[in-house]
Design a protein that fits this description.
18% helix; Jelly Rolls; 3-stranded antiparallel beta sheet; alpha+beta; 159 residues; 10 strands; 3 helices; 36% strand; single chain
């Protein structure tokens, strides 16, 4: 049995805070070849995940907020916002599933936010994500401003 307790959530969040990317995974799957990828994904406010989609091969992705507050954003292929879900641990909406071939990103709105993430495998880095050409790359100088604009457009705030 794998137990997901407060100690594991806090330790994963601490590693995210210490990471230059502001996020950290704790994997439960046996490795990249596993057909069901399962992990904790701890994310701190300010971390930027370039919008991407999983296609060719098609993969679904599911997020459940175990602590903190996250926002899942779906986009049309041209970059317009299609939909979003505010996920808060223990609230009326604590999870969301993103279909294959759908551009999306995840925004952390609260320090200590941790999602349980499930994604179809296997994980093959070269074909895992198709990044949106209309959004800046993760390490680009424009990434922070783009994320800030998205948060403002959605009328969200960091808690």
């Amino acid at each position: 049995m794998i137990k997901i307790d407060r100690q594991l959530l806090d330790a994963t969040s601490q590693r995210a805070r210490e990471s230059s990317r502001g996020r950290m995974n704790h994997n439960f799957h046996s490795g990249p070849a596993d057909t069901l990828q399962r992990m904790l994904n701890a994310m701190e406010p300010g971390t930027y995940i370039q919008p991407h989609k999983h296609e060719a091969p098609d993969k679904r992705e599911v997020f459940f907020a175990l602590s903190g507050t996250l926002c899942i954003v779906e986009f049309w292929d041209d970059g317009r916002i299609k939909d979003f879900a505010l996920l808060k641990a223990g609230s009326e909406c604590s999870g969301a599933e993103i279909p294959a071939r759908t551009f999306h990103t995840v925004i952390s709105l609260q320090s200590g936010s941790v999602a349980y993430e499930i994604k179809d495998g296997p994980y093959i880095p070269i074909e895992d994500k198709n990044f949106a050409a209309w959004a800046p790359a993760e390490n680009s100088p424009q990434a922070g401003a783009w994320l800030k604009q998205l948060i403002e457009k959605l009328n969200l705030s960091i808690i």
